[in-house]
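Re: Re: token formats

Sure, here are both.
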Amino acid sequence: MRRKRTTPWIYRYSRPIMAGIASIGAVVTAYLTAVKLGGGEAICPVSGCDVVLNSPWATVFGLPLSLFGFLGYFSMTVFAVAPLFLNSLEQKRFRAKLENWTGLLLFMGGTAMMVFSAYLMYLLAYEIKAACTYCIASAVLSLSLFILAIIGREWEDIKQLFFTGIMVAVIVLVGTLGVYANVNNTSASTQVGDYIITTSSGEAELSLAQHLKQIDAKMYGAFTCPHCQNQKHLFGKEAAAQLNYIECHPKGRNSQTDLCMKANIQGFPTWEIKGKMYQGEKTLQELADLSGYKGDRNFKNTLTPGH
């Protein structure tokens, strides 16, 4: 009698594994999207996350890049689990067709996500020059999905699969370069520079800024950080120029990333006052209290822009 061929274990478990991996990616990107839209700061074990997540490359068509990442991971989860719910005898024939279609979609999606993640790794290494735990983790997840999509099932036409992968990779790469064309042109300049402060300073703001400078208080920030912009707007143009401001973004004006790394800055802005670190945007009253300021507190700019 002919011995029945054993189905490789990876064929049986690849879809649940891919669903689990994609679900992790969906949860992480959903968190980053919520943080970005809510104007908060993501919790990250390394200081480079805030630089990366607030860089010009972190926004696409005015929306957080993490939102598109969430949609990609969510779609991969759906493709992976869709055939698993068809178990009845009547559904077996349809399940076989669905497995073929979703198998191809998993491969195409995995290829697209892997190529895009590879481009993001290039940006981290050569353009932004900062490490981001979330970005690196996403690249690992994308590569895992790509590999599982290939080895997780038997393919009848390898040449056609290879051709499809090449086409998807080219389309994704060309589309990515097109979307980021303006950002790449800007980053190619010598320096991206600084943002423009539109508010003016009152006597109290100037006095507080001078006091902070005298006690050697430092403000660590990045020109791409909206909270840093708000912080400087609170002081006003004249007073902000008096601050001991340290730019942490490698593309910013007078960047001092080495000092930011040495100080183990976890988010922006971070104030260093009398040897203590205070993370997050502060009101002028809070800064006056933390620094022991005894002067005029009749601050002109009491609200952040847009509040």
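Second one below.
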Amino acid sequence: MTNKAYNFSTDDLIMLSALQHFIYCPRQCALIHIEQVWSENIFTAEGRIMHDKADSNKYESRGNVRIDYSVPLLSLRLGLIGKADVVEFHRMDGGKWLPFPVEYKRGKPKVDDCDRVQLCAQAICLEEMLDVEIREGALFYGQTRRREDVVFDEKLRRETEDIARKVHELIGSGITPKPEYSKKCEQCSLLNMCMPKTCGKARSVNKYLLSAAEDE
């Protein structure tokens, strides 16, 4: 289990979702969590509907599994606050209940670790809150209608802690990174506010003019 030393106060907490935003795009993370900018598109709307369904119940029981919905989360060690869509509590031998976090996503499994890091952060929060060790959880994707099991190994835990540190540094700086256009920008709900193509071109022109002036 990870070290329980508390590094943050309640005044320093950041939203757990910021970790996923940061991996997707540091500028997107800053626009949302520093500048408080948000806009919805078809992708975020579909995701919100899935999360609303997960939040529609408080809990239910299925044999040796109790399912809790919209579970509050907190880690003072990583400085995170948020909630889990679903936490399944599996009854183990001896009557102990072991948490198993499940996160709902609208699309399909991603190439990067943004979803796995978010789920691992949820597990770390639950470990700190409940004084247990959680070895795995699952991601449920709406497009494939299947679960993807996630093992919280040391590599994923270190990556999650590193991303949490970087997000705290970004938000603490209060500086929004400059835009860098890529194909994933087209699926971002903040595309029209971020304007990566326009701002990127402006920076390129300024760089060219500065270079030309230095050559004279």
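The helical segments are 17-24, 26-33, 42-54, 114-130, 154-173, 191-194, 196-215. The first strand starts at residue 14 and ends at 15.
- S.
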